[in-house]
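Worked example
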Amino acid sequence: MDTIFALATAQGRAGVAVIRISGDLAIAAAGRLMDSVPSGRGVRRLFDLVGVHLDEALILNFPSGRSFTGEPVIELHLHGSLAVVAAVLRVLGDDPDLRMAEAGEFTRRAMENGKLDLAQVEGLADLIDAETEGQRRQALRVLDGALGILAEGWRAKLLRAAALIEATIDFADEDVPFDVAPEVIELVRSVRVSLEQEAAGVVFAERLRHGFEVAILGSPNVGKSTLLNRLAGREAAITSEIAGTTRDVIEVKMDLDGLPVTLLDTAGLRETIDVVESIGIERAISRALSADLRVVLLETGEESPIALENGDIVVEAKADLNNGNGVSGVTGQGVDDLTAQITGILRHRVGTIGVAMRERHRIAMLQAIDYLDSVHVALENGDFMEDLVAEDIRSAGRAIDSLLGRIDVEDILGEIFSSFCIGK
């Protein structure tokens, strides 16, 4: 494979900038920049091909099999000057033995060399993008190989089940000493239950990755925008005594106890002949229905303007005026309790998350479940063709293998690796 190089740290001025070189010719290429390449680590003066001094850098030498990519890797830890980085990259770019890395190519080589499976690659991408503590923890679980360990357990059980069924095929003309169906049924049932639990948690795992949406709803002038501003800690929405001030959905991103949350301030819900306001109301209802949670502000005696779903929060508005136990964006009364209630509901939903994080994972697991259902029905009926049952078990195993990138994933690799930066 080509020997590649790229800046592995962010563009711009910094204390340190790291350039990574990976491939069989990495040491030779680095040797053209310095007097000698250290066997482990060391400080070296860097020069261009005509002997001009470029920088003094810390050099790290990772041998094949012990680097991130699995290949020989040299890292140049430079002073983070734009001029220094540009000069070193220019010299490397002129080296005929090297080429610039493509987006995600270092990580792709790590997968191809068995250092990471596909699920771990996705976990690494999520870790790089993590903005909250909850996102960081979940990404690290996947990067540490939790999904791979789980998949290996499923695979081992299915291999045992397939072996039992195939034994009845191999010895069809002889007396098999025991009925394999009960053990196969139990193995299939065990894998199916675990798959179903993991698949169910993917919906909330996706929300953890991209952020939960919480819509604030109510009639005009009930205090929605004022409450949003109080929660956001800034004037994110315009407030006034004129009904219908908010016409479009206003979004504010927040970190609630490590959970990424986008608060939605929506247009007041009422009957109106104003064309623009009616469009805003339609958008409000649409976004509210698709949100993960709705906070409905009501004045005393008012009924909810929308049908409530399980978990939705109904709270009395304008507590500063009615001396009630509700919430007030003006004084902050009840805001902490409301925030805690929102966080508690979302935290409970996050508790159902396993280690599968993406819709791709859910689809693969549902495919495996379908095959296992066919196996279970056939074995329960008692009148089945062993070779067809064995093939269904193998098909379920292949669906599970696709989680880790072992088969049938070439079409999605480009999309995954394109999300990485060049130096990763």
Q: What stands out?
A: Residues 211-350 form a domain with the Rossmann fold fold (CATH 3.40.50.300). The two ends are 17 Å apart (CA to CA). DSSP finds 14 helices and eleven strands in the chain.
